[in-house]
Each structure stands twice: as structure tokens, then as C-alpha cells.
Amino acid sequence: MFRFTTALASCFLAITLMVSSAFARDLENTLYLDLKDGRVVIELLPEVAPRHVERIKTLTREGFYDGIVFHRVIDGFMAQTGDPTGTGMGGSDYPDVRREFSSEPFYRGTIGAARSQHPDSANSQFFICLDDSNFLDGKYTVWGRVVEGMEFVDNIKRGEPPVDPDTIVKMQVAADVTE
Fold it and tell me: Considering the entire predicted model, what is its pTM?
């Protein structure tokens, strides 16, 4: 009986270690989005939208998003940011990114690339879905999802544009954080 119990315990430990390492966060594909109320953790999806993920990480590492306002926040829909002008008309100095539409659905917490009417016009702006928004499926690029801190996203001031809009305090690629 002792050997069986020891063997069973060893198997359980091995399985536990495998499962926990499978769920360990890939820090190179994790963003920390600090808002006034707390930290939002975002899982990037490079297997779904590699060009968009690379652009977001490049701009994040340059500090582009730090201090940028949420210029369009629609209750029950989404919170949009990433425009250095705060008007919804601006972007980075980099060229636009071609569409990477997928079958990935737009659920609450999904992050998509904002764009104009032209499907290949995404640049730096993005939105976080405050609610399921399946009418966007296949029409916008999904590049990430909130995995922690959605309650802080829910607290972002509403409006188009909001009065005294909330800002991104800081956005960082988790692999670069040395706290």
C-alpha cells in the first residue's frame, strides 16, 4: 500500500508541475496596462495577429502609450485609446498595419485594432470590449485579451470624448519589467 500511495503522489506532483508550467505566463507576450485604479494584464495573441502584436510591443517599448487618453468610451461596447492627438484621428509615425482578421470572437475583454473604414488602416489605436461585441467578428483584428483587471477597465470614464478623460498611466511588456 505504501508504494502505491508514494507512486500515486509522485504522479500527482508531476502532473501538477506540468499543468502549472503550461499555464505560466509568456512574459514576452503579456502587457501590463496601468490605469488610475489598478493594473490590467493583457495576453497578446501573436499566433492570431503577429503583425499587430509586434506593432503594439514596439510602441509600448517606446513609451508611446504612456499618458494617452481614452478618447472614445461607449457604455456596453468598448473603450478606445492609442491616439496621441486624443481626437480619434491620429496614430504613430509607423505605416499602417494590414488586416489580420480571424475567427477569434470579440467577447468582453477582447482587444482589437481600431481602424478607419479601410480594413488595412490599423496603426496604434486599439479598443477593449466592455461587453460581447460579436458583430465585430471577422471585421476587425483581434490581437489580445484581458486576463486580469477587467474591473479597472470597467471604471474608465465614458464619453465620446469623455470630459476629463482617463489615461493610460503606463503600458509595459511584462518581460521588460524589473520590479
Answer: 0.86
